[in-house]
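User: Can you predict the 3D structure of Endoplasmic reticulum resident protein 44? Sequence below.
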Amino acid sequence: MKLLTISPSLDIRFAAVILLVMGLSTPGQAEIVSLDSSNIDDVLNNAGVALVNFYADWCRFSQMLHPIFEEASNIVREEFPDTKQVVFARVDCDQHSDIAQRYRITKYPTLKLFRNGMMMKREYRGQRSVTAIADFIRQQQVDPVKEIHSMEEVNTIDRSKRNIIGYFEKKDSDNYHTYEKVANILRDDCTFLAAFDAVSQPERFSGDNVIYKPMGEGVPDLVYLGSLTNFDLTYAWAQDKCVPLVREITFENGE
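Assistant: Sure. Here are the predicted structure tokens for Endoplasmic reticulum resident protein 44:
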């Protein structure tokens, strides 16, 4: 009986093929999700943060952005491996003009930020570089709620800004998760703070409590009277307080 022998050169070639296959399937490589009418709502609604590239194939600047966008997504995926925490996606606006119209896309490429399916007012207008895009996503992952460790801190808040303060029995609660979701969406419009446990007790007369402190000294506080487990009501109340009817138009908030 003869035994099959493998030459050293064949062994090396076989190992090289295995390494190549492993390299191609490295789990660190991120996917750019292509969005269309059949999946866009599902993908965006289930993403904590989604950065969407609205592009057109004929556009030279869209073509230039593709490799930059993909490399930035790879870097971000390594830092935030949860595929529902951060999503990089794209829409071919020529193929899906209905989606472009839905989000009022009039120029290419346009980078829009979404949180839990809701499009943010401010589009990405930073540098079209790998570093800048990755840094932008890192900033979006910073907790928008500052924790209060003593009630004395409330007296030192900046009254030149709009402040919303939540007083919660515990951080791991449906009430706080709703508050945190609202804070993520309105992080550019209001300062959000929260106190927990014994620190918050003096303000929790009948359960968890949220208070809006308007700009200016001596202006009375406004208390949220709705259900904190109802996101739509909580968001509508906070948006009404954080986003004034008359706003100064700047380059950043022009959208």
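The radius of gyration is 24 Å. The chain is about 35% helix and 20% strand.
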